[in-house]
Design a protein that fits this description.
Largest sheet: 4 strands, antiparallel
Distance between the termini: 61 Å
CATH architecture: Roll
Shape: globular
CATH class: Alpha Beta
Number of domains: 1
C-alpha cells in the first residue's frame, strides 16, 4: 500500500508536459533547416526554439502556424511530406547568413536570414 502513492506521483510526473529542450544549432544552416523543417512538420514549439525572440519572428511563426492549422488533414500531410530545396547560401560575415530556398510542394523562392546572437544561431527573418 505504501508504494501506491509513490507510483501515482511517478505517473503524474511522467505525464506532465514539460517544455522540450532542443539542442542549439551549431551552424547557421542547421538553425535554418531546423526552423523550416519544424514549420513543415507542424512542430511550432521546435520552430520557436530556433527563431530569434523578436516580435517579427513571433509574428511570422504565429502566422505560419495559423496557416498550417487552417489546412485540412490532407493539406497538413502534404506539408509534412514536403522537402526543403536550398538554392543558395550566402555567409555575409561570421555572424550572419542568408539562405535562399524553396519548398518542394510549391517551388516558390523564399529567403531566411540567420544570425548568431549570444553564441546561438537563430532565424531572424523569413521572407516569402
Amino acid at each position: 500500500m505504501k508504494s501506491t502513492p509513490i507510483l501515482l506521483l511517478a505517473l503524474l510526473i511522467g505525464c506532465t508536459n514539460s517544455p522540450k529542450n532542443f539542442p542549439p544549432a551549431t551552424t547557421s544552416i542547421e538553425a535554418g533547416r531546423n526552423y523550416l523543417e519544424a514549420c513543415l512538420q507542424g512542430d511550432f514549439e521546435k520552430a520557436v526554439a530556433y527563431a530569434a525572440v523578436t516580435q517579427t519572428m513571433k509574428s511570422q511563426t504565429a502566422n505560419t502556424e495559423k496557416t498550417y492549422r487552417a489546412l485540412d488533414k490532407e493539406g497538413r500531410s502534404t506539408f509534412r511530406q514536403a522537402s526543403i530545396v536550398i538554392l543558395e547560401i550566402t555567409d555575409q560575415d561570421s555572424l550572419h547568413t542568408r539562405m535562399n530556398f524553396q519548398y518542394s510542394l510549391d517551388k516558390k523562392p523564399r529567403q531566411i536570414e540567420i544570425e548568431k546572437t549570444n553564441g546561438k544561431w537563430l532565424v531572424v527573418s523569413v521572407k516569402d
